[in-house]
Design brief:
The chain has 14 helices and 21 strands. By secondary structure, the chain is of the alpha/beta class. Helix 4 crosses helix 6 and helix 10 crosses helix 14. The protein is elongated and about 80 Å long. The structure holds cytidine-5'-triphosphate (CTP).
Length: 405
């Protein structure tokens, strides 16, 4: 059976650089990529849809309500088709619409429906490029995981000189191919992820827990599965649906997590411990509901739980990559570095949970990736994007270990 070609949906918006999209289309085809084009009405003033139709061999989508429709609901069909969604050139207008969630034509509705990685290649006048609103919108989009090939500097069509020129088409095509390939770069890699809080019972109706939502661990499991990894997710009690293609194994207490993780750890290539296991449990769990004691203070005696990461870390095999998290409120880096060493981890993801946008129950995070050799401060990013960066780093550590042997 013939292998299905990867598909790039190329969105073309209305700027003078629109003609360069023809070259991008041709270069992608040379790399064995199937290209579908969607254009804004303004883009049609610069290049006729017929040009893209002839070059791509597919109908070009411009108008959401055009008849006869080639697909049932055209923008959704096109969005599903995309392995990568490239917008080149991307005007300030489409950047603004995407950042604000506006979908009022074929291109903007299609990109909104797409689940594939999105790459923007902006091109505009220098003044527009440097405008604070445009830069803010790009930051918003980057934090949501949208990729951007920044424009080059040079002589612009409007007569000005400065930043805003569409980046070299070869570079744009290279970035697109990287994103296409990246999609399945974890094929055959076994990954165990832990996520969420634990619950340590006090009596049949009460427990001790913490504020972990499980979002970070779930995002990692989902991204790893999308990139082709075989993923097992050990999950504490959380309110998130299971990511598709991931085996989810529930745990409630730290001791249960310890059992489930120890059973599987030695057969994994990468272990990512995003769970927040309780360090202590109640020494004697009451078998009946504990009653109030007429105003007398009540004491709970707690005993220490096993440190799962440290126990697994001490039995780590040479090629395995173990990643831990350090959610701190003070001296973040120093505490994280100590944990990296004490738990025999290859990387620790440190965050200050007191910073707005980081930590519990939010969809974003601000972390520092720390390995034995270097530290990388990441900006405020979506947990999905943080997950991708953690996986990139874990894969790099793994290939380094494998080459050293
Ligand atoms: N961890 C673990 N078992 C525990 C506690 C933590 O496996 N009993 C793991 C977490 O999953 C995380 C890392 O160790 O990857 C750091 O967790 P954290 O709670 O920050 O560290 P602790 O070792 O508990 O240190 P402390 O509570 O003193 O900050």
């Amino acid at each position: 059976m013939e292998k299905k070609k990867p598909c790039v949906v190329l969105g073309v918006t209305g700027g003078i650089a629109a003609y360069k999209a023809c070259e991008i289309l041709r270069l992608l085809q040379k790399r064995d990529v199937d290209v579908y084009v969607t254009m804004t009405k303004n883009a049609c003033h610069f290049v006729a849809p017929l040009t893209f139709e002839t070059l791509s061999g597919h109908p070009v989508a411009v108008d959401t309500f055009e008849r006869p429709q080639t697909w049932e609901v055209e923008h959704i069909a096109l969005a599903k088709r995309a392995d990568v969604f490239l917008i080149a050139p991307a005007t300030a207008n489409i950047i603004g619409k995407m950042a604000s969630g506006i979908a009022d034509d074929m291109l903007s509705t299609t990109v909104m429906a797409a689940k594939a990685p999105v790459l923007l290649a902006p091109a505009m006048n220098t003044g527009m490029w440097e405008n604070a609103a445009v830069q803010h919108n790009l930051d918003v989009l980057k934090a949501r995981g949208v990729h951007v090939v920044a424009p080059a500097s040079g002589h612009l069509a409007c007569g000005d000189s400065g930043a805003g020129k569409l980046e070299n088409v070869e570079i744009i095509v290279e970035r697109t191919i990287e994103l296409l390939n990246k999609k399945r770069d974890m094929e055959g890699v076994r990954v165990l992820v832990t996520a969420g809080p634990t619950r340590e019972a006090i009596d049949p109706v009460r427990y001790i827990s913490n504020r972990s939502s499980g979002k970070m661990g779930y995002a990692i499991a989902e991204s790893a599965a999308k990139r082709g990894a075989e993923v097992v997710l050990l999950s504490g009690p959380v309110a998130i649906p299971a990511p598709s293609g991931v085996e989810v194994v529930p745990f409630t207490t730290t001791q249960e997590l310890m059992e489930q993780a120890s059973m599987r750890a030695l057969t994994q290539d990468i272990l990512i411990q995003a769970a927040a296991p309780a360090d202590y449990r109640v020494e004697t769990v009451a078998s009946q509901k504990i009653k109030k004691q007429d105003g007398a203070p009540m004491t709970l005696r707690l005993i220490e739980n096993p440190d799962v990461a440290a126990a697994l870390g001490s039995a780590k095999k040479p090629n395995q990559v173990f990643v831990g998290f350090a959610a701190e409120t003070n001296d973040v880096i120093a505490h994280a570095e100590k944990k990296l060493e004490r738990k025999n981890l290859d990387m620790i993801v440190a965050n200050n949970v007191m910073r707005p946008g980081a930590g519990f129950d939010v969809d974003t995070n601000i972390v520092t990736l720390i390995t034995g050799e270097h530290k990388e401060d990441l900006p405020l990013l979506s947990k999905k994007e943080v997950a991708e960066r953690i996986l990139d780093c874990a894969l790099a550590l793994r290939s380094k270990k494998m080459h050293l042997r």
